[in-house]
Amino acid sequence: MDDNSAGDELMKASLYAAPTIEPITLNQLKLHLRSDSQALSENIVLNTSIAAGSHPVVTAYTLKGAGVNVLGKRAVVFLQPVNNGTGGTVDVKIQESDTDVDTAYADWTGGAFTQVTEANDTVIQEKEYTGVKGYIRVIAKTLVADCEFGVSIMVDSGNTAEDNLLTDLIQAARELVEDITGRALFTQTWDYYLNEFPDKDYIKLPFGNLQSVSSVKYKDSDGVETTLTENTDYIVETNGEGAGRIVLPYGESWPTFTAWPSNPVTVRFVCGWTTAANLPSKIRTAIKMICTDLYENREGQTLGNPNTMAYQENKIVQRLLYSLRLWDEY
Fold this sequence. Notes:
It is a single chain. 17% of the residues lie in helices and 35% in strands. It is of the alpha+beta class. The chain has two domains: 1-37 and 159-299 and 308-323, no CATH class; 39-156, Jelly Rolls. The longest helix has 19 residues, at 163-181. It is elongated. The model is unreliable at 302-312 (pLDDT under 50).
């Protein structure tokens, strides 16, 4: 018997909104697999974002560079000043976007270069882009006097022939780790279904790292759906990396009603770590190991082959993930 129901049914939940990031990037997996054997000169592509030359005074960030596709690739942005006019300054920052659409770009955190003045107008500055968006560009403003400078974006394109395969392996590895640990790794929205309200004063929610509860609804036998009110009808306990709960306030009770015959009670909630930086290193390591197994044994993953992970559990992966499992029942 679980905590939320009087029956022995399996937990019923459906994914409403999938995560938008993965534990490791395509480039990180390529480095781990050492899958790119091309010469450096063949990998590197230099792109002009803001053309080198003399740029007039603009008092806002209206000098916009060309966008460059960096999805799954390493990229370094070079600011190359030449000569500032008397008292002139140049401010440049990196922006990122999922699409190369002008209005979709937003400032990338940490992407602002040191302001160029007459004192440092011969010093080349560089910043490696470590974000996860598909496109980057630079924007600039020039104050007081015309200034000469240009901005280039160097992209390490590498071998892209297996990019689709590797991207699928990353997702598959993440989903496998979620199955093993009982966790949702990154921000995702789930609908959790109950046949009735529990006889306890709380509802335990699966997958850990509860961020918020979007709604708690129940439907009666006439098909009328009612939405409960947070902090009036229930309280949310996020409980850190553990299992979150919906708890009755003092003196309150769950609604009494004749239930709709299918999934009458629905809880929609958001869970998972919010950024890749917050993910435990054990999980990232396990993801890489799983990807390696799947990549190296992609032609031999057949039932009964004792040399493949399909037949034998990867014991190191299991040990890495053991302490991160959620053992709660639902």
